[in-house]
Specification:
This protein is an alpha+beta fold. It folds into five domains: 179 residues, Rossmann fold (3-Layer(aba) Sandwich), CATH 3.40.50.300; 85 residues, Elongation Factor Tu (Ef-tu), domain 3; 74 residues, Alpha-Beta Plaits; 106 residues, Alpha-Beta Plaits (2-Layer Sandwich), CATH 3.30.70; 114 residues, Elongation factor 4, C-terminal domain (Alpha-Beta Plaits). The strands form six sheets. Strands 11-10-16-7-8-15-12-13 form an eight-stranded antiparallel beta sheet. Strands 2-3-1-4-5-6 form a six-stranded mixed beta sheet, sandwiched between helices. Strands 21, 22, 23, 24, 25 and 26 form a six-stranded antiparallel beta sheet that branches. Helix 12 runs antiparallel to helix 14. 43% of the residues are buried.
Length: 601
Amino acid sequence: MTDTPLSRIRNFSIIAHIDHGKSTLADRLIQACGALTDREMKDQVLDNMELERERGITIKAQTVRLTYPAKDGNTYVLNLMDTPGHVDFAYEVSRSLAACEGSLLVVDASQGVEAQTLANVYQAIDAGHEIVPVLNKIDLPAAEPDRVKAQIEEVIGLDTEDAVMISAKTGHGIGDVLEALVTRLPPPKGVADAPTKALLVDSWYDAYLGVVILVRVKDGRLKRGQRIRFMSKGAVHTVEAVGVFSPKMITVDDLGPGEMGYITAGIKTVADCNVGDTITDDRSPAAEALAGFKPSVPVVWCGLYPTDADDFEKLRESLGKLRLNDASFHYEPETSAALGFGFRCGFLGLLHLEIIQERLHREFDLDLIATAPSVVYRVHDTRGGMSELHNPADMPDPSTIDHVEEPWIKATIFVPDEYLGNILALCNERRGQQVDLTYVGTRAMAVYRLPLNEVVFDFYDRLKSISRGYASFDYAMDGYAESELVKISILVNTDPVDALSFIAHRSQADKRGRAICEKLKELIPRQLFKIAIQASIGSRIIARETIGALSKDVTAKCYGGDISRKRKLLEKQKEGKKRMRQFGKVEIPQTAFLAALKMDA
């Protein structure tokens, strides 16, 4: 199985915008190569996570090895990587592309080029890939292959003369795709006798096997019983099993240059497996490591706290296992006066945050409270120092701050002409700066610089609703810029609730402060004393709501008799209320926290 010459191996990934048919095309290729029987086949066979199947999106890049008898009489080994399309999982895409030499660019023949198509194809070009354009869904009545071909040439600059026309749903044109793979994509390079060099593409935790590592061998061989070394950590392990996915796990004797597969080595510690690391032979190691991947930089941070304080250790373990499976996710411990012990977690975007929360709930049975998402600010103090601020509660005293910088993004939005006005109004409302506005047929491409703080909350939902779902959106980080930002603290009976504090632009501080106070007034149950809910910037109160006291009828048992008895009881009640206002603690229920944070998120 490993004697396939390099000239007959093709490593490729499928890249496309969301819903343009990547996973369906992967299904047809698996079927055409006979990797699974019709009985074993199911839709989106590579999306094996319950969440992926439910939402109809790919979250984790998956790999599969196929054998294809080509028209030239040779049998080729095809290593396919199905990649995610959503902007939050672009890091998964970059890792997959580093392990391949070519890409299939799938474009919906009715929708045309979308924002994510553009972002992913640029990543593939940066990785030095040969790209084969594939027009999918040509069986739809709305398909316009000639218009879409012209669009690809105009927007991306790819020659579409030999674009492959397919319908992944019906299987039309799948043979042409397989032939294009073997004739138009380059074979991998590598030397079998050189010291072992393998790229660690991905890793995940298996309850039976320990850590399973997905590798792409560049030089040398990986075989069972070999002692291997992880070059960045220096950890040494003995390989227990070597195999490939077809898409079932199949063990093989060894993996040679240009091949993709998995290894297990009884690894128990998550920290040993850094995605992008180089694996080499312990006895005759490679002189230098492979380039690996750029480390991912989280753009959105939020606190995750267990609803039951006893689950803290379970949460720590669960996050460790998820971190192994998802290298773009970061976490560090933190404490909050209101919520107890938890973790400050960094994500690549709001969908990423939502998916991690959902996975913690489903895979590890954890009930969590998440604080309002926040971006990373840079705080410059009056002494010339600079610190990064992940948590609004840690904002230093305003008198020590010289200025604060916030992250900006460059957003590309594709939208049909009739919705353009609404989109531009939304971008301007969010403090956006227009960079470019061009037309491709009847679709406009707007490029805007926007503060990330304005995008992480409900920008994507608003964009979809005002364009009736037709707008597509992609963004890339575009540096930091100085801005007039303030920390808004929420006080309940003069006690600050750190989990509810947030940072906003001064122009919107009053509006957002008022909104959260009004929300909390509805959510916090009434007590036997008045509760003041305030939003403040430093010592200045910008919004206030008061929850009236519950009144208990203390004179109910008094009937008839002297009025002074009633007065005495009422005075006593008044004194008690005064004392309660001084020492009474307001318990904010979990539901109130969740609803208030949701409003902010």
